[in-house]
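[job 4471] stage=fold_predict status=RUNNING
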Amino acid sequence: MGIKDKCAIVGMGCTKFGELWDKSGDDLVVEAVSEALEDAGIHLKEIQAGWIGSMSTAWSATGLVYPISLDFIPATRVENKCASGVEALKEACFAVVAGEYDIVLAVGMEKLKDSGASGLFPPTSGLPSGPKIPLNRTAPGSYAQAANRYFYHFKINPEEGKRAIAQIAVKNHFNGSLHPKAQFQKEVTLEQVMKAPIVAWPLGLFDCCGVTDGAAAAIVTTPEIARTLKKDYILVKGFGVSVGALGAIDQNYDFAHWEETVQASRRAYREVGIHDPAKEISVAEVHDCFTITELVTYEDLGFCPKGGAKEYVEAGAFTLKGNLPVNTDGGLKAFGHPIAASGLRMTYEIYNQLLLRAGPRQVKNPGLGLVHCQGGQPGEFNCAVAIFGR
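[job 4471] inference complete, writing structure tokens
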């Protein structure tokens, strides 16, 4: 029966992202939820249930109810790698649509800087080993492998390909310079990106997102209740989720596309009734843990033809002034990546864009906004796509 237009987001909050040594995870939850409550114009006691996304096994649902003093409400911890924040929001929305609750809370939070985490994922994998995926692979190494394979697959000169992904870093850092909550609020030049120290060729320092602390929160209710609370809210149009496991050990996997993104987005598009995403989506927040990730995602979401992303990037199609602005807040490149918080941070940006509250980053006349998160490594992603509108 679908979820389209059956639940609304009436309030959102987001902390500043960064190396937040002076704040605990509890502090971040309180800050994000407090802003969301104020935005929604409701009291904490009106929240009937909650979901918190977190990759850390040290966090249970207690990490949601304890900091905000909501003892004994139904609460659940959600974990699905980098898609955890969107998954928490999805579960909250499904509970409202099912009629179980009237007003609920979804939070994504991660406190990585205090944990000693040095990357996006553990250095080992539970998958069987194969010639393409040694068990000691790193995240930069895996995405560098994908970048080189993408260049080969589509017959792109490697230096020209590196220049194209560098332009994505320039775009996202410019957008982040316009957002007061971004971790990195400084523009970079194409020359700086191209000449930055190499992490795993072709990925340099500015092609990789940071390890970060942060939290974001959303308050979800029915459209009927939303209308009684305020005039400016957004509607949830649809979700799509896809989880892959065997692509990386399939000898036919091309490493030049993200099949999980293809599958998740098409499920969301079907639910919403989208036939031409390049024309029907007004603004998007996509997972840019590395610049090559964003480049490939353009194609897999249907924003441009397969193998054509380089030309679209060079034409400025995804800049603030382009036909389909992507990562208007700077994305993971400017915000960093507190894993489970990123999906709700992306939703926070789409929420503000649709409500015309994005300030200097504002997109003209936005209709539908898309959020895309994927966690894992090429060939074994957990992907979630969400679409929102007025």
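[job 4471] summary: The domain at 139-209+236-389 is CATH 3.40.47.10 (Peroxisomal Thiolase; Chain A, domain 1).
[job 4471] exit 0
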